[in-house]
Each structure stands twice: as C-alpha cells, then as structure tokens.
C-alpha cells in the first residue's frame, strides 16, 4: 500500500520523502508556520546542500554551521535558527535512542499503535497532534499499520478524512485539506 508521496508537490523532494523515513520525519517536524509543500521540500534542500541526508552528520554538525545551511537563501524554513536547532535535537535523539534508524520507532519490539504514538510524542519537536498526524501518515500512505494505529491516530486516522498532510495524495486532496483547515479555523473563531 505504499505509494509515491506527493507532499512537497515536487518530484525530487517527494522521491526522497518516499525513500527515506528520516526525510519524512524531518519534513513533518518542519511543517509548522510555513506552507506544507515548503516544509516537505526541506529535507531535499538539506540533502542537496549537505551532499546527503545523514542523521549522524546532522546530529554532529556544529550548530552555527547547520544554521548557516538552513539559512542559505532560499532558507529551508522561515525560522532557520530555531528549526535548525530542533532538527539537530531530533537527529541526536534518533542516534541516542534508535541508533539513527527511524524505522525502529515502529518496529522495535513489535509495538502497537498506542506505543508508536507514545514514541512519536517523545521525539523532540513532536507534540500530541503532530505525532498523531505522523502516525496517520505512516498508516495511510506508507503501509505501516501497527495494531490499533487508526484509534491511536484519532480523527487523523479516519478513512477518507481530509484533515492533514496524512490525507494529501495529489493536488486535489491538498486543496481539500486546506479547505478543511480553513473551515475548522473559522468555526473555532465563531
């Protein structure tokens, strides 16, 4: 059930997201306060600038050097310093707890959906909502479906939903997700 992702709306960036769990996790972390497409292009930009997307190298890079990589125009994120720091914290956490192997988040010990959600929420920069969305993305688009993943993902795991990046498979669904978010924001203000 895995498919080529269409989150960055850019073939090279989407190919990296499809091939690399690290790229997908980094894109998810970057997906705040900037358009989704730019966030998910970020890992490709980093890979191009660094020569590869290597979790250990990113974890070990001098923070000022990594901030410079993040800030080089066009900047990877609108807040290159703080987001660079978060990416490095995430990389260090992955190296320390999972030997740099992102897939161990959902494979080590054959965890159920609740446990995967717990592990995702423990990641630097991942709160409850981001963790649930990422779990839904894994289940819906990567074929990573630990027992109970839909329940653990909450509304983001619902089949046919158009709530988040987990539901974006093309430009039409991107538009539907944006319309859902706009309506939810308007309802919250009312």
Structure description:
The protein is mostly helical and 190 residues long. The protein contains eleven helices and no strands. It has helices spanning 11-19, 21-30, 36-50, 55-60, 63-71, 80-98, 104-107, 113-121, 128-141, 149-153, 171-189. It is globular. It starts with 10 loop residues before the first helix and ends with a helix. The relative contact order is 0.11.
Number of strands: 0
By helix and strand content, what is the structural category?
A: mainly alpha
The biggest sheet, with number of strands, parallel, antiparallel or mixed sense and barrel status, is: none
Strand content: under 5%
By oligomeric state, this entry counts as single chain
In round numbers, the mean pLDDT is 96
What is the end-to-end distance?
39 Å
Radius of gyration: 16 Å
Shape: globular
The helicity comes to 55-70%
Low-pLDDT regions: none
- Count of runs of 4 or more consecutive helical residues: 11
Order of helices and strands: HHHHHHHHHHH
